[in-house]
Design goal:
Length: 105
């Protein structure tokens, strides 16, 4: 690996990979919508977990690269990774509130 690549550009690469996986997740979910097959839910879970991990690694790389010069890749990578983690966090919060309302705690 080239040591001259700024960390913020590494964060951008992880953000683009996470975006591509999210697009693939959307495509697969629309194509593989079959009620009785469990394989699609396993694929959904694995792809979602991969997107979360990539967004976290990308966000860490972007934060570590905050002292780099401001570039387009730095700003976009930081906001995409923050957006992915905010989306996942809000979905988790919505699931928890639904569980609380269902089980009446």
């Amino acid at each position: 690996m080239n040591m001259n690549i700024p960390l913020s550009h590494t964060g951008f690469k992880f953000a683009v990979l996470a975006l591509a996986l999210l697009a693939g997740f959307t495509l697969i979910s629309s194509v593989l919508f079959i009620e009785g097959i469990q394989l699609s839910s396993i694929l959904y879970g694995l792809m979602t977990l991969t997107v979360i991990i990539m967004a976290m690694v990308g966000l860490v790389a972007s934060i570590r690269g905050l002292k780099d010069t401001n570039t387009f890749q730095k700003i976009v990578g930081l906001f995409l990774n923050l957006g992915f983690l905010a989306l996942v966090g809000s979905l988790m919060l919505a699931n928890v509130t639904d569980l609380i309302s269902v089980f009446g705690a």
